[in-house]
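The methods section describes the discrete structure representation at length, but only in general terms. What matters is that the chain and its backbone geometry are given together, residue for residue. For illustration, here is how one protein appears when written out as sequence plus structure tokens:
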Amino acid sequence: MNTEIEQSFYKNTPKNQLKLFFDFQKNHAYKKIVYNDKTEKYIACGNGEKTLIFLHGALVRPDMWFYPILKLEDKFRIIAPLFPPQGMGAQEAIDFVRFILMKENISKAVFIGYSYGGGVAQYFAEKYPELVETLVLSHTGLLRRENAKTQMTRMCKIIKIFPFCNYSAIQIMATDNESRFCRFL
């Protein structure tokens, strides 16, 4: 930790967690890629036939996923793009993710999105369904447009739950405030 702000921010974090986090940052350096005439970054690591794409929330970075990445990188290939804190809209974000997938020769992946990253994941699945194997969303809303019911029905067909999740249903609020459930067996 270099600054007083960092020391203050992490003062209540257990030392072993802090070491794990900083070791992760040291051992998982960002790859750089030129996209739309700007240098963008992403984490690329892991081994495995399946690829997991971790999409972070607003105001955080891909290292928010450090613990799941550490636990999964022995079995999966992992990509975690860094979305800039401002200046990248949804269309540019999904095109950036698609650009990374093309550069890394990834034809299909599991998308895991938190908050803003969940919105990006949904939009990506809508625009490029052939590249999405599974969609996992956390702490995110559904995209709301005029065709929301049609979109939710489509999402029910796309979304699958990881085997280690103990949920058998995802509640989706339809545009007319009627609750619907999509079950996954």
User: Anything to note?
Assistant: Helices lie at 4-9, 15-27, 66-72, 90-103, 116-127, 148-158.
